[in-house]
Amino acid sequence: MKRKKFSAAHYDYLRKYSLRKISILLTQILVLAIFITLWELLSRYEIISSFFFSSPSKIIKTASEMFKSGELVYHSSITLKETFIGFAIATGIGFAVAFVLWCSTFLRSVSEPYLVVLNSLPKIALGPIIIIWFGAGQKAIIVMCILIVIIVTILNILNSFTSCDKQLIALAKSLGANKLQIFAKLILPNSLKDIVSTLKINVGLSWIGAIMGEYLVSRAGLGYLLIYGGQVFNLNLVMTSTVILCVLASIMYLLVAMFEKLMNKFYGK
Amino acid sequence: MSVVEIKNLNLIYQSTKSETEALTDINLTIEKEEFVSIVGPSGCGKTTILSLITGLIKPTSGQVLVMGKTPNLKNNFCGYMFQRDNLLPWRTIEKNIYFGLELKKLASKERKEKALDLTNKYGLSEFLKKHPSELSGGMRQRVALIRTLALQPELLLLDEPFSALDYQTRLELCDDIFNIIKTEQKTAILVTHDIQEAISMSDRIIVLSARPGKIKAIHTLDFSPDLTPFERRKTEKAKQLFDVIWQEIQNEKKKI
Ligand SMILES: Nc1ncnc2c1ncn2[C@@H]1O[C@H](COP(=O)(O)OP(=O)(O)OP(=O)(O)O)[C@@H](O)[C@H]1O
Ligand SMILES: [Mg+2]
């Protein structure tokens, strides 16, 4: 079936399509290259202060020094761990709560105002309370991370669960489906896209949570390096930590994107 | 035992803003292997009657019995084909056809093969691995029909099953469905806006009044059993009956 002969116009279309894709990618790379080169040149010739702006070569140098001393892996792994634990717990519990609230319209209505208030509350305001309750250690950072992620997760996933077409539900009911079957065969596949996009949002939010937590309490981690570098005016350290953060966050995002592809394949889209 | 018995049925839809009287004082008995059509102006409660028979909604007062029992969603005798095809967009056509069997835990090899036979018959076999969005409205409606028939229901409830189709397909499908229902000796209730369609297929036609729906007239048809729906349409009797029912519905529409 797939090995059909296509018209010349189709091949022309395909060629244009891939050409466009390549040119987008090339432009993206070019933008980055120009940015890095400009930055390097400007700071090398001290047109901008290399003390305040650092420079790509200095960042690479600092990073490789940190790598050799083991600092890079140490701090990164601490922040990664906090982010990952926060992400996993918040996503898991958020999903479970959304499921329970989907099951019971009564609980959903009861919890609604609480969720809305908790959602609009800036979680950083809870910092002092968290430190007092959980101590000024990693636990507090993870709790901060969870708090930032969980409410959004509940709201997004619940919203997606309840947005399933009423007619499809009526059909399933007329076919004798029970609540669990409706969830497994209608709600879940219908929400798949939203679940994946929630995961994507959560990746970003967990990084925010972990870094914010580290700003508050920590003695290690990338957030700590940022704060420390800022306090001692070591801009190289600040920039390097930022770059590492960018790289790690991108990797985690890519993992989720791969998961998304896998899911789409599974559902034959 | 009658397949469907409806006694003194009233239905009022409740909402916080208002209540809607959808059906008043409906009495109706449908026997085994009967083909009954329900016609009436839009919003007169046709779909509501079907929902009551499947058990999706409960009567406000009065009684509905299907095969002598109160309708029960978990264990009903009906195959309900909705006004919309309601195919699941993320499932292939084949998986859509098995949806009902899966939910009822009846997805045996034998049943599945029977369903696949139907897809062959309706020229859908080459689309089994496609998704609903890749099919035309007529094909989708056929898939929905096969999904319903796969469960081998005692009673078929058809809510304007042909409304999304072009005229040619519609006439063809009419003949096909009529055939299936007759050979499988099923009981069927067809809701439609198309009076000709009702005349071409039914043993009885129920005309409902404008909302709140009451039974305004019942026509019993006595075509010779070997006429196909298509042949029925062309008879003089069909034309006369069309005029009568047309007038009845027209009078109702004026009341809205
Ligand atoms: N869930 C509901 N809540 C409130 N009112 C409803 C509900 N469902 C239907 N109604 C109302 O009840 C009346 C009958 O609805 P129904 O869907 O049975 O009409 P119908 O005869 O099938 O119309 P159509 O030919 O347009 O499909 C309509 O006026 C409709 O507005
Ligand atoms: Mg209707």
Can you describe what's shown?
The complex is a heterodimer of chains A (269) and B (256). Helix content of chain A is 84%, strand content 0%. With 269 residues, chain A is mainly α. Chain A has two domains: 1-48; 56-266, Orthogonal Bundle (MetI-like fold), CATH 1.10.3720.10. The mean pLDDT of chain A is 91. Chain B has helices at residues 46-54, 93-97, 99-103, 109-121, 137-149, 167-183, 195-201, 229-233, 236-255; strands at 4-14, 19-30, 35-39, 61-66, 78-81, 155-159, 187-191, 204-208, 215-220. In chain B, strands 5-6-7-3-8-9 form a six-stranded mixed β-sheet, sandwiched between helices. In chain B, strands 2-1-4 form a three-stranded antiparallel β-sheet. In chain B, a hairpin with a 4-residue loop joins β1 and β2. The chains are: A mainly alpha (269), B alpha/beta (256). Chains A and B meet through α8 and α9 of A and α3 of B. Residues 46-47, 83, 159 of chain B line the site of magnesium ion (MG).
Quickly name the level 1 CATH class of the largest domain in chain B. Alpha Beta
Distance between the termini of chain B: 38 Å
Under CATH, the topology of the largest domain in chain A can be stated as MetI-like fold
N- to C-terminal distance of chain A = 18 Å
Question: What compounds are bound to the protein?
Answer: adenosine-5'-triphosphate, magnesium ion
Biggest β-sheet of chain B: count, sense, barrel? 6 strands, mixed
Structural class of chain B, please? alpha/beta
Shape of chain B: globular
What's the number of structural domains of chain B?
2
- The whole-number mean of residue pLDDT values of chain A reads 91
Q: What is CATH's topology name of the largest domain in chain B? A: Rossmann fold
Q: Strand count, sense and closure of the main sheet of chain A? A: none
Helical content of chain B stands at 25-40%
